[in-house]
């Protein structure tokens, strides 16, 4: 990636995070994926060096930097080879804590955020439901307030909740007024910061259950269905004002969009770099395959798409940060941040997809990950003994 124009803070983040990530080689991620094992050492290493608090206030133990620096951190993690597994193992701790830091009560902020920054607790983001998908405003999980106002009873189902197995906290979006009773679907939602209480390593408090989803890839991080059946949560888990949860969560969603755009860039740049290296090494028909324009030009095109998406991504992150600034004189509207953050995420994802697809094609048959035998040797006759075999 061309790094001209980034700030000194962003470049410091990039170098320091790359150094940390270098301690977690490809073999670490391959093993954790194959064994469906949470990369807890990676999460702990980032927490130990204070990276989980990169965009959180200094008075809560964070670094007080912004989403511009956090996006650079997530890009660097993905680009290191940790890919989406590395990114997913920590990113909710960075973005889902943004609404808590801004709208949470003093007790919520001081009681929760320092523990997330230190790595003692992990958090997950509970928004998606089986029957709502992208249409977040139609979600139906209901949090009903008790008669004495001391608690809520939560009933409903969430799906695709990343890291719920290892999280102590969930940022939960639920309806406190049913869809039928609101004037607009954007009303009646509330955000809660709740405990995912366990009675033992495998069972949960009454009214809470979860089921791990079996995946074909990205297996180092768990994805879950989470079931609530009259799950009791204290009233003081409500973040901000009741029924205003959609406005509050947008704060986390725009941050998430910037971070995920950064992660996509990381994947794309890593793919192009590896493919470019391979085009110099691989000789077919008596010359390096990179000497063929049909191989080189699609990679150059992919690189330029990433560069364009990079500008969109860091523009969105900058707008997000400026819109939060208490000192800035520019008045940046949230819908403008939304347009920039959505555009960045879309463009970066498209650029990353093109880069990854072209990188796989550039590798020919080697674009297919070799299967392995239980003894750890490579099962495929064609790559046994090859210098590209990942087992060597
Ligand atoms: C690995 C993984 C991790 C995730 N982690 C989390 C998490 O931690 N927390 C969480 O809350 N959620 C999480 N999600 C959920 C994710 O945010 C949702 O999958 C996403 O919001 C899309 O919802 P859906 O899958 O139900 O798709 P749907 O909404 O059912 O959409 C299906 C398809 O239809 C298209 N589509 C839908 N409506 C329209 C329309 N009007 N016009 C054109 N096209 C349309 C969509 O683009 C998509 O291609 C995760 C998902 C995955 C796969």
From TrEMBL:
Residue span(s) of domain Acyl-CoA dehydrogenase/oxidase N-terminal: 7-120
Cofactor(s) this protein requires: FAD
Domain Acyl-CoA oxidase/dehydrogenase middle: 124-230
InterPro entries: Acyl-CoA_Oxase/DH_mid-dom, Acyl-CoA_Oxase/DH_mid-dom_sf, AcylCo_DH-like_C, AcylCo_DH/oxidase_C, AcylCoA_DH/ox_N, AcylCoA_DH/ox_N_sf, AcylCoA_DH/oxidase_NM_dom_sf
Keywords: FAD, Flavoprotein, Oxidoreductase
Pfam families referenced in this protein's UniProt entry, alphabetically: Acyl-CoA_dh_1, Acyl-CoA_dh_M, Acyl-CoA_dh_N
CDD domains: ACAD (cd00567)
The organism's place on the tree of life at top rank: Eukaryota
Domain (Acyl-CoA dehydrogenase/oxidase C-terminal) ranges: 243-372
The family this protein is said to belong to: Belongs to the acyl-CoA dehydrogenase family.
Name of the protein in question: Acyl-CoA dehydrogenase
